[in-house]
Amino acid sequence: MEVLWVLRLSVCDLSSALVVKIRKFAISKILHATLFFFFQMPRSYNRLALALARVTHSERVWAIDVPRISEDGSRYVGKKFWTGTVGAMYDNSCWNGKPSIYEVITERDNVRLYLDCEFDLSDTQLLTKEDVFTCVQFIRSCLNQHLRLSFPSLDINPNELIILHGCTPIKMSLHLIHRSIIFDNAQCSCASYVHELNAFLRHQLEDSDLNDFLKENLKKIIDLSVYQKNQLYRTYGASKLDKMRPFILYDESNFDWALNPNWSFSQMQISLEAWCRTLVTVDIFCHSEILQVQPSEFLSVRSPELARQTLYHTSCFTDNMDPQGRYLQKFEMPQVERVPMLVLSSHVPRASSNSETVIVDDTMWIVNEHNNPVRLSDLEHNQCVFCLKCETQVAGSEIRGVGISSAKAFLRPNGTKCVFCFNCSYPMYILETADQYGFVPTEEEIIKSPHDKLNFAGSEDIDFDACSRLVFLDAPMGTGKTHVSQWYLSRHGEKSVLAITFRISLAKYTSERLGLKCYTDSDAFNNPEHHHRFVVCLDSLWKVEKTDYDILLLDEGTFLQYHFVSGTKKGELAEVIDVFKCQLQNAKKVIVMHDRIPESTIDFYANLMGLNPDNKSEVTKRKFEKPTPLRPVLSYEDKNVMILQMIKDYIGNFNEADMCSNRPFVVFCSRADYALLLLYILRQLATEKFGDQVCTLALTYAVN
C-alpha cells in the first residue's frame, strides 16, 4: 500500500506541487523524528519550583525575561522558567534574535568557577577602555595567583579562563568562567573559594599602584550574592530585556562597548560549541576532577572581607593553609544520608532580621550536614552544618537542611565556639550555659579575706596601684567591686578616668556612684573638659576625642565583650573595635571587673592591648572566691495559694518596732493590673493589722 504526501512549495515566483511516495514502513520513522523534536523543545513554566520538579536528567532549568504588568498598571520585568536541553535553548536564542536567557544554577549542579563582577558609576564619572583593560588584568592576575596558592597540585590552564563583558562607559560588567576548576556545588564550595578570593583581591589592592578611582570600585566588584540557592546567570549573547547590552567575548585587541541597539544573536555568529563553553553548570558525565571545598577557618568571623588578611600579608613568608583540611577530593567526603527530623522550629535559635550576628547558648539545636539534629554543645571543630539564617529557615517548621550545608563550626583561638555561614556571612557565637566558674586562679591570684566584702573594715584585699597595667578583678555580685573602684578613683582625683559600659542605665549608675560626668548629659560632648573624668557607652565611644586616659574602667567587662557581637550594637563593628582598641592601648591602667571572668575575656582584652595574658608583669588576675547566695524558688500551681503564703510570711516576719517586715520579698507580675491588685490586698492587710504607719509597701512596674 502506498501513501501520497503533497507538500506545497513556494520558491521565488514559481509554484508547484511535489508528490512524494512514501511506503508504509517509513511513516513510523517520520513520526518518531517528529515526536523526538517535539519533546526536545523547551517547556515553559511560570514558577521556578515547578520547573525544578519536572526537569529531567538530560535537561536543565533556564529563565528568560518577560514583560509584565502589575495590578496598578505599572510595567516591570519578570521571569519565566523553562526546562530543556542545551541544544534546544541555543536554538531558542537563534530563533528569538534578541534573547534574554539565564542559566539557573541549582543546588544539585556541579559548577565551574564563575565570577560576576560589576559596579555602576555616577553621572559625573565615565569609564574609559583603558580602565576596563586595567581592571580585567588585575582581576585575572589575582585569580591566577590565588588558584596556584589554593590548588598547587592541580594542572590549571590559564587559557581556560573565559571572560564575557557587557561594559558601557557608565557600567563595568564582567562574567568570568574558568573551565579548569569544577566545584561540586555553588552555594558552599564555590562560595567558600570566592569569599577567600575576594578577600585576597581586596588585600592586593592595598599594595597595587592603581589610581584611587579604580581601587575604590574594585573593592566591591565581585558580587557575592550569586552563590545562593537557585541563582540566575546570564548566558553568552543574551541581554536583559530592553537593555540592548548583550554579553560578548572580551577581546582587548578588538574591544568595543557592549551597547548596541541593532544587535542580534545571529549576527554575532555564536556557534553551539562556543556557547556551550561559556555555561557554568557541568554535564553529569564530566570526567574532570571535582573539588569539594569546605569553609576556611582562616576567614575572620567579623567579616569575610577581612578573611586571610594575615595569611597573605606581605610580612608572612609561609602559607599556613592546609589543603587537606579544607580542599578535599570527592571520594574523601562522607556519604550524606537524609534521616527523619525530630526537632521543632521552636527549639532552633533565631536571629532578628536586622541583626548581623547572634549569641546563643549551647543547649539549642542545629542541623548538621547529615540532616541530623545536634545540640550546639556537641558540635565539633570543622563540622559542617546548615545555616540558621539562609538555609534552615527555608524549610519552615520541619527544620531540615536544604541543599548543601554552607556553614561550619570551628573553635576560635581563645577557645570559644562559633558557627559561620559562607553563603550569607552570618556568624553565630555559642556560649556555655552551665554555671561557669571563670578562669582557674593560682594560689597567689586568690584573694583571701575574712570578710564577705572587699577592702572591708580597713583591710586592703586588692590595691590597683600594686597591680600590672591590665587588671582583672573576678568577684561575685555584692562583694564591693564598685566600692573598691570608688575608693581607688577618689584617691587619685587628679588622674583622668574613662569608664566604658554597654547600657545607658549602667552608665548613669556608674556616674552617680563614682562621681563621673555622664555622656547622657546635654552638654557632655560639647565641653571637652567634661571628658577628664567621663563615663560613656560603647556605641558612643567614637565621640570621645581624648585617647590618653590614666585609668580605663570596664565594669561588667565580659558583658562588654559580648556586646560587640550582639544584635543591639549599632554602627560598623570594625570601626567600634578600632576606637576601643585605641583607648585600651593608650591607657596607663585598665581595670576589668566582673563575676566569673572566663579565659576568653582575658585573652580578648590582652590581645587588643598586645599583651601576654600569662605574663604577670603585664597582666594581673585576682579572684575573690565568695559564693553568691542562692535563694530558694517556690512554685505554686494555684495563684490563690501563693498569695496566702505571701500574706502568712509577711505577717509572721513583721517587726512592729520598725514597722516593716524582716523578710522582704519581690513579686514579678506579667501585667500591671495584677501588680496593682496584689499591692491593694497587702496594703489593706497591713493597715488593718498594724495601723497606718506601715510604709514598706511600694509598687514599681514597667510597661514594655
From TrEMBL:
GO biological processes: error-prone translesion synthesis; mitochondrial DNA replication; replication fork processing; response to UV
Gene Ontology molecular function terms on file: chromatin binding; DNA-directed DNA polymerase activity
Catalytic activity of the protein: DNA(n) + a 2'-deoxyribonucleoside 5'-triphosphate = DNA(n+1) + diphosphate; ssDNA + n NTP = ssDNA/pppN(pN)n-1 hybrid + (n-1) diphosphate
Domain of life per record: Eukaryota
Annotated GO CC locations: mitochondrial matrix; nucleus
EC number assigned by the record: 2.7.7.102
InterPro entries: P-loop_NTPase (IPR027417), PRIMPOL (IPR044917)
EC class: transferase
Protein name: DNA-directed primase/polymerase protein
